[in-house]
Structures
1.
Amino acid sequence: MGGLKELAVEVKGLVKAYEGGFRALNGVDLEVGAERIFALLGPNGAGKTTLMRILTTQLSPTSGEARVFGLDVVREGAKVRKLIGYVPQEMSVWTDISGYENLLTYAEIYGVAPSERKGIVWSLLEYMGLGDVAHNLVKTYSGGMIRRLEVACAMLIRPRIMFLDEPTIGLDPSARKLVWERLSSFRREYGTTIFFNTHYMDEADLYSDEMAIINAGRIVALGSGDELKRSVGREVILLGLGEDAVMERVLDKIRELESVGYVIANGSELSVIVDEAETALPRLMEALRREGISIKKISMSKPTLDDAFLKYAGIRFESKGRISEVRQMRRMIRRG
Ligand SMILES: Nc1ncnc2c1ncn2[C@@H]1O[C@H](COP(=O)(O)OP(=O)(O)OP(=O)(O)O)[C@@H](O)[C@H]1O
Ligand SMILES: [Mg+2]
């Protein structure tokens, strides 16, 4: 590629030990290019929030270095704060006032010029699809509306980088989609870098240009979703054969094929493990045709991010049970 790419985030040897010495971050190295959408993907307790809180200057590291657009988060915190928008993991808006009042209050906190406040607030309410409910109390909003309001708050200063800690937690797929549509178009319009945490693999896969997998305070993999999946390697072709297929002979024929890794038979179903399904499949079908074997069913499966996580972190990703919990917590807060 050549040339210098501007870095939005630069982290070197970052360690965060909490009281008692537990290392929530245990030597993190990371670079995120400007104008990228970057996902930090990891299970509960991996250190995602800790890293984000250091990058947003709320928490100081134990050792190591972190920079945002070249500014040191410890020594130049005030300057960093002028460049960033932040949506924390927990609820960050007041529920007993309206969405409009929330934004106006944040605009004041963030030092938006008084003469510009109302204009900016209204344009953001419209932008995030909250114009119609602007004057309703936030406690009457849906989870998706609340998250959109929080995102709007983080957009007030038109930041160069937005940090979003689990931006769509507890939202249903259509509400998640809406949040991401707005974030993507904001990035397109203003060149804002987006750095988000998630433990939804599909969300990291769908919306990020690049992602890192973090586990137990360490970055264990880095790349685009496709790169990570490809790095797991093999694809699986599942074949359902006619009842009359003579399995032993079929297996021998398939094993002879160059593009085939190995084959597992299960009744009349075969799982054929290959490096690349696109090349292997035609050869496979040709070989079976020559033997006069009928194929009843074909399906292919590619490695998933789940497989990538298993490979790099050595464990399965478990995030079930938590979403409903968060939803419940949000409901409770809303009721006040
Ligand atoms: N203030 C604290 N004091 C002690 N330990 C903490 C503190 N905050 C976090 N931890 C621990 O540090 C680890 C990383 O926490 P962190 O909140 O960064 O994880 P996370 O990846 O954001 O998890 P989640 O997906 O649940 O939000 C966890 O084991 C957590 O219990
Ligand atoms: Mg967290």
Note: Residues 7-229 form a domain with the Rossmann fold fold (CATH 3.40.50.300).
2.
Amino acid sequence: MNLPTEEARGLARALTELLDASRQAVTAAGSPLIARIAEHVGCPLDEIPTVAEHLPSWDHANLQRGVDAYLARHSPDAAWFGIAGSRHFTSVVDMLAMADTSGQYRLGAVDYTTVATGPSSAAEAVQLGLVCTLGPDGTPVVLAIQGADEDRGEDRCHLQVLAADRSTAAAVREEILALTREHDVFRGQVLAFGTSEHRGNRLLTFLPRPELRTDQVVLADGVLSSIERHVVRSVEQTVALREHGQHLKRGLLLYGPPGTGKTHTVRYLLSRLPSCTVFLLSGVAMIRWLRATAALARRLEPSVVVVEDVDLIAHDRSMTMSGNPALFELLDEMDGIGSEADVTFVLTTNRVDTMEEALAQRPGRVDLAVEIPKPDAACRERLLRLYAGPALRLADASPLVEATDGVTASFVKEWVRRAVLSAVEGRTALDEQALRSALDELLSQQQALTRSMLGGR
Ligand SMILES: Nc1ncnc2c1ncn2[C@@H]1O[C@H](COP(=O)(O)OP(=O)(O)O)[C@@H](O)[C@H]1O
Ligand SMILES: [Mg+2]
């Protein structure tokens, strides 16, 4: 600006006076926001102690449920209110302190957000809001909820408790946290960790639980039932084991070539454990979620932690936070989960050889290792009939079964899919001929692919 110095000073002075006057006006009239809180609690804002709890952002739905249950118990008619002008991420306590001295933060509407509560359900949660309620001892208390602020890289949600007496505030916090655990939305769900597009914040997402019948999993006789017996345990067995001081945790390793049904078997197990909480981890990135997963698995027991393709981390020689290679960290975490916790680890791998050394050095983590091999002739026929369904016109399957020696289960599935497709397109029957030509086509394509990968023509 190009104003004469004297004029500039005058303007600055006038502005300062104006600001002071407006501040005084706010304080004199009293900020309705502050008044509401101070009147309820019964002492001036700057004398009210606050007790806070900071939770991971994924716990927002649980925090809301805990607070809702608390309010239902102590002040069912309580109404939420908000803070107008809360544009930037500032803690509620700081905003209230500023509301007292400036007109910036005023009494306003509650800010709501949506949080997932299941694979296809969501609920409203308070993103920023306050509510007047009572402590367990009947004295006045104000609660505030503040959700995570993704855009500012803040990935925790917050509970603030304001009460004239700090011990009341602490008691309220404890009761809300207990209710939060009691109403946990994650209990009995299938969950996967991920990273949001925004600033890499941690996310916990719900997945639908797979539904598979026994006849949809084709393994050699007795294999599936022995796996199932190991993992699916009755409540009575759990009680008996605990009474006899036995540890509950189990470790299952499924190994075998790709496409033989390791993931398929895991999905079947999950369908047989409808009330277990499940955590799905895979890839090298899983190490990042290991600690959080172990803590959640304990909190939400009985639970199953699935670590798919664990050989990927076996190759990873880089050190983790605890200074261990990733695979050792996983095995240590499996052990550290505590003997009392009802947590089962299910690991899958295509390359069990890369893990042998680690498993030998950390014994006891895996108490059942089951090979899922390529299907034998009997299994190939079952797979063929399973995937072809009732449209299949085939009296004797043995020529085709013989011709497919050495293929994987997923190969059989793809082969049948192609045969069905060409039968539908050509309006022909799904018979030996249709299956034979689809097989020849698939095998020759596979050979061409192998040749080109090997650098041939
Ligand atoms: N043993 C099996 N029985 C029935 N279907 C299977 C079997 N193995 C694989 N499949 C089919 O092939 C698909 C891929 O198999 P998958 O379980 O992912 O193999 P893996 O995890 O061993 O690499 C499965 O989704 C399923 O449709
Ligand atoms: Mg798999």
Note: Residues 262-263, 308, 348 surround magnesium ion (ligand 2) (CB under 6 Å).
